[in-house]
Amino acid sequence: MFVESFYDCGGRLEHMFMVMGMHSQYLRHFLNTSNVLLQPKGSVNAPYRYYIAIMAAARHRCPYLVHVMKSKFLLNGGDPKWLQGIKYAPAKLQALSTLNKYLAHRPWLVTHDHIKSLCQGDRHTRWQVSDLVQAIVLLCHFHSLAGFCHSTGLNFEIDHERGHVFPNVIMQSPSNDTPCDPFMSPNCYEDTKPTAREHVEVLLKEMKRLREKGSEEVTSEERHRHFEKEKSEASQDFLPNDENKDSSGNANSMNDEPYCSRFVEDPEFSFQEFKNCAPTFRALDYNWDDHAYMLLTELYSEVADLLDEKFKVMRSLTYKTLAFESDVDTSSLRGAVWMYIHCMYGIMYDDYNYGEVHHLLEGPLKRFIRTVSSVPEKTTKSLYDNFWRDFRHSEKVHVSVILLEARLQVGLLYGMRALQNYHSKS
Q1: Which residues of 237-253 are buried (b: 16+ CB within 10 A; e: fewer)?
Q2: Residues of 288-326 as b/e, b for ≥16 C-beta within 10 angstroms?
Q3: 3-state SS assignment for residue 212
Q4: Contact of 375 with 234, CB cutoff 8 Å
Q5: Residue 81 and which of 149, 230, 323, 332 are 20 to 30 A apart at CA?
Q6: Quick one: which of 393, 30, 25, 18 has its CA closest to 172?
Q7: Is 188 a catalytic residue?
Q8: Please, are residues 229 and 354 in contact by the beta-carbon 8 Å criterion?
Q9: Is the pLDDT assigned to residue 136 strictly greater than 50?
Q10: Is the dihedral of CA 27, 29, 32, 36 positive or negative?
Q11: How far apart are CA 232 and CA 104, in angstroms?
């Protein structure tokens, strides 16, 4: 896969794929989906697709991803003038700016009216529904990918003026059932601290207790109460001011601000927590399997199946390990991470017990999840270091991949719901 990626990326192995390569089974599905998303279709040509990617990455102030997409934009025949800023791009691309900012920061505000304004606007800015659905998927894909780049602390590629490499790190392509972790030796847990073992043992006991309790009936009232509790707590003490910086300085250097802000409108617009219990999106009424996936199958069939398969691979990906323990069923832990992200954005599943989120996700992990999923540009090394302190890097990257896919599905659910409302009325 690294060889394939090397050729697909024009003779380079990009840093984000090197990190994703710790989970090769997932990387294969990610690359397949990404390649199809960037293939020209309809009136959305290659330069348009890469510019949409730049717009999406810029919303989360991700200079790494903006730089990569700018290079590919030019390689695919893009007009260099467009890179001076959004106001130099075609009016049709500029028209996506409002949808871009809402999908990136407050997707629950995307409505039928946003879709209508794009599909029935001026002839220079008007989008066909079949083309707009592609733009929405591209925006959501690169919003979530920007979060992954921030969460794993990716450095610029070597051709960037601030780029550098780590010559002593040797990446090896892992087998499908073994995570590759070049930063930690196989014997890294031989002298594990007692506190580390205690932490893992407590988590294992909690997971076992919840599995055994799974057969017990949890009332719908209890599920709803746990959901509202987690949603409410997620908006409290979200990101203290002292977390905005790490030992090396600002999480998002001000030097990167103009680099990204030129590609967006209203750059100060950002995530707003669900204060005072914003309306809840019930998955029973609109979900991926029964609604969003079916709409995509109708309007963008070649990507619908790829996305669906990628979600399924991510939800089932496991190595049955937890730090230094093996043969562990981590399904409840992985599920809690996924559900917590959806909960943050007001999406409730009636058949899930949100008490598991409370019992399985420690405070530092919740803070990392909240930051990466909503304001990834504020992710710092300390946030990464402070959760699961005694786990492998590959396990932390596994969390980042879950965040990528869960946040992608959040954006698609809100975007497809608005599109479906418009589509059914037109």
Answers
A1: eebeeebeebeeeebbe
A2: beebbbebbeebbeebbebbbebbebbeebebebbbeee
A3: helix
A4: no
A5: 149
A6: 18
A7: no
A8: yes
A9: yes
A10: negative
A11: 21
**Residue 244 neighbours by CB under 8 Å, 6+ apart:** 250, 251, 378, 380
Bridge partner residues of 281 (DSSP): 347
Q: What is the pLDDT of residue 169?
A: 47
Lowest mean pLDDT among 2-11, 28-37, 88-97, 151-160: 2-11
In this structure, which amino acid lies at residue 160?
A: H
- Find all residues with CB under 8 Å of 165, minimum gap 6, and list them: 158
Residue 291, Cα to own-chain centre: how many angstroms? Answer: 21
- Tens digit of each residue's pLDDT (9 = 90 or more) over 89-107: 999 999 999 999 999 999 9
**Are the CB atoms for 368 and 361 separated by under 8 Å?**
no
Q: Chain-wide mean pLDDT for the chain?
A: 85
User: Collapsing DSSP states into helix, strand and coil, what is residue 249?
Assistant: strand
Name the DSSP letter for residue 419: H
For 222, 345, 370, 375, the CA distances from 276, given in Å and listed in that order, are 20, 13, 18, 20
Going by the DSSP 8-state scheme, the letter that residue 168 receives in this structure is T
Q: Is the pLDDT of residue 126 over 60?
A: yes
Catalytic residue among 9, 62, 119, 260: 62
C-alpha to C-alpha distance for 106 and 403, rounded to whole angstroms: 17
Other Cβ atoms closer than 10 A to 42: 11
Encode pLDDT of 35-59 as tens digits.
999 999 888 999 999 999 999 999 9
Instruction: Detail the DSSP E strand segments found in 292-409.
Output: 321-322, 325-326, 347-348
